[in-house]
Request: fold
Amino acid sequence: MVFEPFEDESDFEDLADRLNDPDPAVRRVAVMDLADTADPDAIPMIARAVEDESAEVRLQAAIALGEFDGLAAATALCKALQDADGKVSRVAADSLAELKDPEAADPLLELTAHENAKVREGALLGLKQLRRPDALANGIEAMKDPVAAVRIQAVGVVGYLKAEEALPALIACCRDEDPEVRRTAVSALAFTKSSHARDALLAALGDDNWAVREIAAEVLGRFPIGKDAQKLIVLLDDPYWQVRVKAVRSLGVQKVSEAIDRIGAQLDELTSNLRKEAAAALGEIADRAALPYLESLVDDPDPDVRKNVRWALGNRVTMLQSNKA
Reply:
């Protein structure tokens, strides 16, 4: 059925009446119909449903508010975020993450210091997408929160703002006790070219958690690594192929010719993603020493690997001219 917009106030009056119906199922459907109008005038009525006695109606209101933007929707969602029902508060957090209007940040900023960790987490989740510069101080403060889930979202807020003054706090989080906080902080360093961030990334290559090593290897591809390339080459022995993939990719981007034999050794791996990345990296390095490795993969069973090999061998002339005696 094709939806037709409301044409007069009587339609809203009918929905307002249904919001007062004694049957919660009727009230829930009324909230859904209000969301379907896509009319900002519906927001105050949906906001009323955030305080409904039925958790199902409140849940529907939190979902419905995610279809709108602006301060009024954000204020209502902040109420839903503090709901005693866990489902309602989680949906409210998800809806807050969909907000796009920076003005919606105002009520969220206050909730970053709320006594409930779930509320703090949800408020920071909403702030992240809004990229409000005045959220930086809240984010940095929340990076010291005792709850790891809150710290993760705080790092996201700070990382999205890409503020150089936040680098010390982000680098400190690269040493956090929680691996997901460390992984998020390492990822957030991608925006800068700071030598301090580079040192933190090199240190993260030795992290106990493979996901941290993986993202560190990936982000290092954005930094000139020079004499520290060996620290990336060492990762080609990592027990996790996902880590080796990112190390291979960054070594290719950095055109580290001394890694050719180690990258070539990855071509014998059963994991096709690793062979594909190794072929691409050898093509990026474009050194004649890579030719035997690439030629051995011309008939690889994986079409994506063969495609990268053909691309890499397209640099054959450059390779043959490299290191020419």
Notes: Confidence is low (pLDDT under 50) at residues 1-6. Residues 65 and 73 are 6 Å apart (CA to CA). The first helix runs from residue 9 to 18. DSSP finds 21 helices and no strands in the chain.
